[in-house]
Amino acid sequence: MGSTANRLEPPGPAGPDTFERLIGELHELGFERSLTASRPHRGVYAATDSPVTLTVVTEPPDPHVHVRGGHDAPGWHLYWTPATPATVQLIALYAVLNDDPTAAIHAARAALAAEPATKPYPAAG
Fold it and tell me: What is the pLDDT of residue 2?
């Protein structure tokens, strides 16, 4: 039982790259960031073909991701902090984007097997 294969990376301190892998994946999926001039460390990511929006906040004192789903009532949401490992963030992302659980698992597995994107997108903060 001493296998390290299932151990996730330990949480690190929040910083400008805290949600970097998630943001890279969002760009790969066609989500675009809406900027708020008064809050440059807050980005709202949306895609025209998805009812899901993600708000990514990288500034102290409360860096977090807030995911909202569905334009229909009742809506739902998820919230995670920088302590949420990047692997869990990606798995949760594909779970909320796919109605079919099998498709979600396959998409998450493919994303986890791929190398993280190398910042061809604007930083979150």
Answer: 43
